[in-house]
Amino acid sequence: MFIEVLKSKIHRVTVTEADLDYIGSITIDEALMEAAGIIENQKVEIYNISNGERLATYAIRGERGTGVIGINGAAARKAGVGDLLIIAAYAQMTPEEAREWHPTVIFPKDNRL
């Protein structure tokens, strides 16, 4: 049996752009993705601190060092520029593995490391 546990989290970043016409996903500064251990196209959960909305999408790489956090497609109806987010990724593992697991959590300042 496998259970789903927190793999990594980017805590309290600010949405810098929102694009309703994009096909979907969340754009994340590549340096933040790397630090959190999130890879491109990986499923992520978005928790909007500003309005309580929650959604699932996939991560796409944004330009390194820019601090970009872009909400794209339909998700742009659930988060807007200036909103504070938590971005979380999960992994499946056995309960035995999970007991020893420690997630990677980063706390960016102004969307940068």
What's the SSE blueprint?
Elements: E1 3-14, E2 17-19, E3 25-29, H1 30-36, E4 43-48, E5 54-62, E6 69-72, E7 84-93, H2 95-100, E8 104-106
Parallel strand pairs: 1-8, 2-6, 3-5
Antiparallel strand pairs: 1-7, 3-6, 4-5, 4-7
Number of strands: 8
Write down the domain tally: 1
Oligomer: single chain
Q: How do the strands of the widest beta sheet line up side by side?
A: 2-6-3-5-4-7-1-8
Helix and strand run: EEEHEEEEHE
Structural class: mainly beta
Percent of residues in helices:
10-25%
Intertermini distance: 36 Å
| Beta strand % | over 45%
> What is the count of DSSP helices, taking H or I runs of 4+ residues?
2
What's the shape? Answer: globular
Top-tier CATH class: Mainly Beta
Mean pLDDT: 97
Rg for CA atoms: 14 Å
Question: What would the CATH topology be?
Answer: Barwin-like endoglucanases
Per CATH, which architecture? Beta Barrel
General description of the model:
12% of the residues lie in helices and 46% in strands. It has 113 residues and is mainly beta. It has a single domain (3-106), classed as Barwin-like endoglucanases (Beta Barrel). It has an eight-stranded mixed sheet. The termini are far apart. The model has no long low-confidence stretch (mean pLDDT 97).
Concise synopsis of the structure shown:
The protein has 113 residues and is mainly beta. It has helices at 30-36, 95-100; strands at 3-14, 17-19, 25-29, 43-48, 54-62, 69-72, 84-93, 104-106. The protein is built from two helices and eight strands, in the order E-E-E-H-E-E-E-E-H-E.
